Amino acid sequence: MTVRDIRLFGDPVLKSVCDEVKVFDEKLALLAEDLLDTTTKLSGRAGVAANQIGIGLRGFSWNVDGKSGVIFNPKIVELSGEKRLVQEGCLSVPGLWHETPRYEFARVEGVDAAGNSITLEGTGLMAQALQHECDHLDGLLYLDRLEPEERKLAMRALREQDWFMKR
């Protein structure tokens, strides 16, 4: 359907906990298409949460290792392996990349746009994306997960971004 604009750091929708999806209708199917288009039609996007396009519902799209889709009402049911520092960025905080602590493996359960149960899991980028997108739905940005010294550096770099000063 449509590639939607991404909300940027400072927009209150990004810090709000998203509502559970309760109605599975044509409107939700259109949201799923928009989420998927917003992730897959532009390069370098591993996922987009609904609140990043201004919709306060629990859902996100993913595009990792040639596989893509949309999940609603995702819940992390397993995080395992060691927590490692990985380079992470965010479409809502463009231009910044920081060492973010993430578990090596993640499993998420939720439903598709028709309400059918689905499970997503993976290591590497998939594990990182699942954790990152679920955080968005809880009103967290990856910046909130940074170690204190890294967070100081990130906030300083954020204030220096041209897009941040224009907001």
Describe the structure in your own words:
- By secondary structure, this protein is an alpha+beta fold.
- Helix content is 27%, strand content 35%.
- It has helices spanning 26-40, 124-137, 148-159, 162-165, and strands spanning 47-49, 59-64, 67-90, 93-111, 117-123.
- It has a five-stranded antiparallel sheet with strand order 1-2-3-4-5.
- It is globular, with a radius of gyration of 15 Å.
- The protein starts with 25 loop residues before the first helix and ends with a helix.
What's the helix and strand layout?
Elements lengths: L25 H15 L6 E3 L9 E6 L2 E24 L2 E19 L5 E7 H14 L10 H12 L2 H4 L2
Antiparallel strand pairs: 1-2, 2-3, 3-4, 4-5
Main pleated-sheet profile: 5 strands, antiparallel
By secondary-structure content and strand pairing, the structural class works out as alpha+beta
- How many individual helices? 4
Strand order of the largest sheet: 1-2-3-4-5
Shape: globular
Total DSSP E strands: 5
Helicity range of the residues?
25-40%
Care to give the gist of this entry?
The chain contains four helices and five strands; from the N terminus they run αβββββααα. By secondary structure, it is an alpha+beta fold. The chain is globular, with a radius of gyration of 15 Å.
